[in-house]
Amino acid sequence: MKLKCGGSALDRQGRLGTKGIESAAHLVSDVVEAAVVPVADRIKGKVPDLYVSLKPGPAASVEIANKVSASVVSEIGAIARPRHVIIVPDMPKTRSGKIMRRVLAAISNGQDPGDVPTIANPEVVDAIKELAK
Q1: Rounded CA gap, 16 and 14, in Å?
Q2: Banded model confidence at residue 15, pLDDT cuts 50, 70, 90
Q3: Which residues contact 109 (CB under 8 A, 6 or more apart)?
Q4: Average pLDDT over all residues of the chain
């Protein structure tokens, strides 16, 4: 199954879309931002990793990660269960505020995110690398 960007949870070809998974994550009241990236899997081809940042107040916890994963399964089905739910302090963003999914995908796939001169908050990349280990 291929993971693609945008669209509903499943498209006509049976591929998972990021929008549906991210929307399911947003149903958890503590989540303020969510980003899904594809991760290479030997058996399934691609599986989703889900990065979320929380509203001010709640601390990152296994319980919140489990709630997010359960929300995805409840809304879409077990096929969309994230491989990992990684709670991050902030998302890497461009200066215009767009989430840099390319950076998150590189981290999830064990690759170097490369030079990110347009990133507005470069300090968050190192923090995310540690959290994703």
Answers
A1: 7
A2: low
A3: 39, 40
A4: 89
Average pLDDT over residues 107-120: 89
Q: What per-residue confidence (pLDDT) applies to 99?
A: 92
| The pair of three-digit structure tokens given for residue 27, joined into one six-digit string | 């149903």
For 17-23, which contacts have Cβ atoms below 8 Å and span 24 or more sequence positions? 18/48, 20/75, 20/76, 20/80, 21/48, 21/50, 21/72, 21/76, 21/80, 21/82, 22/50, 23/75
Q: Answer yes or no: are the C-beta atoms of 53 and 65 closer than 8 Å.
A: no
- Is the pLDDT score of 113 beyond 50? yes
Question: Which residues are bridge partners to 33 per DSSP?
Answer: 53
pTM for this prediction: 0.87
Instruction: Locate 132 and state its tokens.
Output: 């994703």
Rounded alpha-carbon distances, angstroms, from residue 126 to 21, 50, 62, 114, 133:
25, 17, 21, 12, 11
